[in-house]
Amino acid sequence: MKMRLSQVLISFALTMALLIGFEVITSTLLPVLGWMEYRLTFNVLIILFLAIRLDSPLVPWMILGLQLVHSAFSIEGWALGTLAGIIVMISANYLKELLQLSTAIMTMLTVQLFQIIWFVTVTLIICLKISNFDKFGMIMWSFIPGSILLSLISPILFWLLRSIWRVPTHGGSRGVEI
User: Fold this and answer.
1) What is the dihedral of CA 108, 111, 114, 119, to 10 degrees?
2) Which domains does the chain have, with CATH numbers?
3) What are the tens digits of pLDDT across the range 59-116?
4) CA torsion 103→105→108→109, rounded to 10°?
5) 140/34 Cα distance (integer angstroms)
6) What share of the chain is helix, strand, coil (3-state, %, to 5)?
7) How far is CA 87 from CA 28, 37, 58, 92, in A?
8) In 3-state terms, what secondary structure has residue 96?
9) Predicted TM-score (pTM) of this structure
């Protein structure tokens, strides 16, 4: 399936609005409820969806745009997240033919795997920046509870993103061409 540029722009704008909504909720509502130690990084799920389901040279630019919006709500720099997002995108492209997100369990497992790749990348870069790998386990652990929760809700978010991007549920394993 091939998308027109106008469809891409509308879908990307809706995806950005969804990300901003999630960022506002996770930045304001969750701390009020007492969840301050961990963050839900919805940007990772959105980037993973784009990397798996879209087949376009525009995806890295979309990742950059999403990370710039995410960085307005997070202390995580846009460059660090963009690098991790590109690494996840490249990994997903290599495995795209093998990834079958037809069941909720497979979606959750795939999302958890790629979140681990993302967080290991981010943690390694942070440890390199601070020149202290003794903190690797502690930094990595701070990502795990949120990633498990995100994996559990990923089938719902992927369903929503499939609707926004008009991606067929089955077939077209290479994703939507832009």
Assistant:
1) -100
2) 5-177 (1.10.1760)
3) 999 999 999 999 888 876 678 888 888 998 888 888 877 777 788 999 999 999 999 9
4) -110
5) 21
6) 75, 5, 25
7) 30, 26, 15, 9
8) coil
9) 0.86
